[in-house]
Amino acid sequence: MPPSSDLERLARRFPPQFTWGVATSAYQIEGAATEDGRGESIWDEFGRRPGAIRDGSTGAQACDHYRRFAGDVDLMASLGVGAYRFSISWPRVQPKGRGDWNESGFAFYERLLERLSSLGIGAHVTLNHWDLPQALQERGGWANRDTVHRFVDYASEVARRFGGAVAAIATHNEPWVIAALGHEAGIFAPGIKHRATAYRVAHHLLLSHGLALRALRAQGLATPLGIVLNQSPIHPATRSPADMAKARLNDGLTIRWYMDPLLLGTYPEDVLEHLGADAPPVHSGDMEIIRQPLDFLGVNYYTRNISGSGSPLEPEHPERERTDMGWEVFPAGLTELLVRLKADYLLPPIYITENGAAYRDQLVEGRVADAARIRYLRSHIAALADAREAGVDVRGYFVWSLLDNFEWADGYSKRFGIVYVDYETQQRIPKASALWYRDLLEAARQRAEPAARTETSRWAGA
Ligand code: IFM
Fold first, then answer.
1. What per-residue confidence (pLDDT) applies to 372?
2. Which of 24, 60, 114, 303 can bridge 33 by disulfide, Cβ–Cβ 3.0-4.6 Å?
3. Which domain holds residue 351?
């Protein structure tokens, strides 16, 4: 099917070398939780706690990607995807988080990388997408400063083996989620509810990021290195001084607490003051280590955040379109966020490392007509083009997610994939959004290689 002029117009707003990808993470798709010597992760342990996961499920089987990776990579290729963002499971390659490496675990990623490379798909690797080895948690996890050094050892080993074969390495995915949801709200693994611990964890994540970047560069690695942050613009619910102050503080807690140390080498004063005795202990030299030059910054964008005295879900605004997560569909927030980051910081190149939406998809006669997801993706990609045209250096975009998968505390109840997964049979069924994305990528590719305009046979179903 030739791309529609709407897709051509959208594709034309991006340069030919722009990276178009899809994203996943290890615990959410791999399954094979006890196979080939994999160690236990904090999410295996958390999933056994009664009531921790909404549908009582775990990632033990997930999408069985550990066995089905070859077909999944072929599926990506059939969509014309140029890059795949995935994470390495630390407990799969180092079961105890220290000491022995698990060769079978590394062999899995080697096979995955070979398949990606054979199909010309760039590998964008994340080292920590939340699945810390449980053995390290038993020694205090990210709250223990020693875990910082264990992470640097792990990062160095991955870089030594695979560094030359991957397009980019990110240290952590969404440190705010690990700290705030895992250690303050306690709704994600490891399920701790203690604010001072949460901020100590956040500091150690940032420190381990900085030390890992230093170590990898000292190894002579030339691969682009960065970190991935989840960010939403924070809007006050009303113009009242109380709501405005709350919004500013939430901006500090979620955005500036991470951006300032990484790019300015300081923690924001207002947040330190707010935390008081719960602020983390910072050793001399820590801030300098954290502020390593970044080759890229990954931004995960889903929605905006409204701060005020009312409920964060704003029941008083039922007219606002929301996804199945209850998150408002607010594409303009992506432009606003990126333009603001550029105004406030000297930014490295940006990749949108996650953007997408969960909807209550229905498989009807072998098809999933997810028109709402297509609208979501289209409007956010257009908002991204607006940010680029306003001068923000964004180099790539990854849809979250390739596959429906284990959505953490929501289990399998939320479907984020552009490909539907029938968890009974593990059959993959590309949704209408996957075919739309394929057509967009085809339009982008034809823009890059006008001579190949008629060669549509490469693309599945074209
Ligand atoms: O599924 C998660 C992902 O692991 C991290 N970012 C947000 C996604 C949707 O909640």
1. 98
2. 60
3. 5-460
Q: 305 CB under 6 A from ligand 1?
A: no
Count of Cβ atoms closer than 10 Å to residue 153 Cβ: 16
Cis peptide before 401 (omega within 30 of 0): yes
Written as six digits, the tokens of 332 are 């303009």
389 Cβ contact partners less than 8 Å away, ≥ 6 residues apart: 13
Find how far residue 306's CA is from the centre of its chain.
Answer: 22
Per-residue pLDDT tens over the stretch 293-338 = 999 999 999 999 999 865 554 555 778 899 999 999 999 999 999 9
CB of 202 within 8 A of CB of 179? yes
Q: In angstroms, rounded to a whole number, what is the distance separating the alpha carbons of residues 94 and 381?
A: 38
Residue written as tokens 């250096």? 393
Per-residue pLDDT, averaged over 265-290, amounts to 98
Q: How far apart are CA 124 and CA 127, in angstroms?
A: 10
Average pLDDT over the chain reads 95
User: Which residues, listed in sequence order, are joined to residue 354 by a DSSP beta bridge?
Assistant: 300
Best residue for ligand 1 mutational test, from 398, 401, 402, 406 (most atoms within 8 Å of Cβ): 401
**Cα 392–chain centre separation:** 20
- Expressed in angstroms and rounded, the spacing between residue 273 Cα and the centre of ligand 1 is 30
Q: Does any ligand 1 atom lie closer than 6 A to the CB of residue 300?
A: yes
For residue 341, the domain's CATH number is 3.20.20.80
Q: Ligand 1: which of 24, 25, 53, 413 to mutate, most ligand atoms within 8 Å of CB? A: 25
Q: Which of 219, 198, 211 is nearest to 278 (CA)?
A: 198
Domain tally for the chain? 1
Say how far apart CA 322 and CA 326 lie, in whole Å. Answer: 5
The pLDDT of residue 434 = 99
CB of 22 within 8 A of CB of 81? Answer: yes
